[in-house]
Structures are given as C-alpha cells and as structure tokens.
C-alpha cells in the first residue's frame, strides 16, 4: 500500500491541521479531512503533493458516526495502515455566558470536540494495535481547558478539558502496545477558528495578556505537534504540552 509512514490529520483544510501537513510533507503520506472548506483543502493538497507526499482528502464530519466511518474506510483502502493521528478537528461557537447556551449548542460541541475525537482515536488504536508496531496519537486540546473561558466559551473549554482527561486515560491503556498519546494545548493562536466564533481579531486583541506579548502562529503549534510525533519524543506519553507563550 505505502512505504512511508501514514499520518491522519482531521480538520486539515486550514489552521493547525494544514500547518502540520505542510511542515511534515517530506516525512509522511497523508489522509486529511475537512468538513466545509473544499477550497482550503484543495490548496493544502496541492502544497503537500508538491513536496512529494501522497495525499488523500476526505470530506467528513467527525461529529457524525458516518463521517468517522468514511475517514477510516478511505484510510484502509488507500494506505492500509496508520502511524500517526493528529486529532485536530474541532469547533467553537459564538461568545456566550452559560445562561445563554442551549441544549443544541452543547450537543453539537460535545459531539464534535469530545465524542468525535474519542471515536477517531479509538479507530486509530484498533489499527495500530493490529499492526503491532506502535503509533502516535496527538489530541488537540486548548489552554481554555485550564483557563475556563468564562463569559466566552465555557462549553468549548469544558470539551477540551475532557480531551486532556481522555488523553491521560487512553495513554495508560495503550502504552504497553507501544502507542504514545499526548495532547497539545494551544493558546492565543492566529487561526481561522476565531472568525468562526464571530471574533476574527480576537488573538490580536488579547495578545497583551500573553507574557510574550504576541499571538502564536499555526506553524509554531505544528512544530510542537510534529516533535511529539517524532522519535525524538520516544519516551513521552500521557503528557499535555502548552503552546501558549507563557499564558
């Protein structure tokens, strides 16, 4: 099927997922996913293929069981293995207090950010254990998991705190199989996620709160992710790494 290691990145049409694919194109072949940005997906595919990587893009919503099945059906058919999962797909909503959040918003948030991420990781573990040579899973959390995001996105923060707990529990389960599991907590990063939450300039507006006095870039987060995925981090598992400029 393939002679290069295979990396699955969910939510790879923009932001951190796209940065990971671009930076790692010399080392991996990719199964990449997107939900609603075909133009972004096409641009990433072109950039990554130009560096010699094989790329399969799948349109899928990880908040739905059928979407997760579509991802792994394509992975199995195209590559027949998985070495690294960057579990990146996630959503945020409009800034709101808890008293303004309804059941539909909470259900969607948890379906994508928690249930979807857990089930994507589950399917990766099944394949990595069957392969018998280990693997790496990196879940994308957020500094919001420890900051709480009061008056903004408490539901989003809670979903990412769940990811941190899931990371630790899963890492303990699969460490004997040679599978390493970590999470990354980005801080104020200049990505499209803020615009999707109705605040396109949020990272710049709040940069003064960061000890380094600036927002971070998707590439800076991607470099940390790819270090965790590499053999240089071979004795790291169960850990959560902040990429926050000190915040």
Q: What's the shape?
A: globular
Number of distinct helices: 9
> Which architecture would the CATH scheme give at its second level?
3-Layer(aba) Sandwich
CATH topology description: Rossmann fold
Gyration radius, in Å: 17 Å
Mean pLDDT: 94
Beta-strand level of the residues, as a percent range? 5-15%
CATH superfamily: NAD(P)-binding Rossmann-like Domain
Based on helices, strands and strand pairing, what is the structural class? alpha/beta
| E-strand count | 7
The neighbouring-strand order within the major sheet is 3-2-1-4-5-6-7
Q: What do you see in this structure?
A:
The protein starts with 5 loop residues before the first strand and ends with a strand. The protein is of the alpha/beta class and 247 residues long. α1 (15-23) packs across α9 and α4 runs parallel beside α6 (154-174). The model has no long low-confidence stretch (mean pLDDT 94). α2 links the parallel β2 (29-34) and β3. It has a single domain, classed as NAD(P)-binding Rossmann-like Domain (Rossmann fold, 3-Layer(aba) Sandwich). The chain has helices spanning 15-23, 38-49, 65-78, 103-131, 144-147, 154-174, 193-196, 202-205, 218-229; strands at residues 6-9, 29-34, 55-59, 84-87, 135-140, 179-186, 240-243.
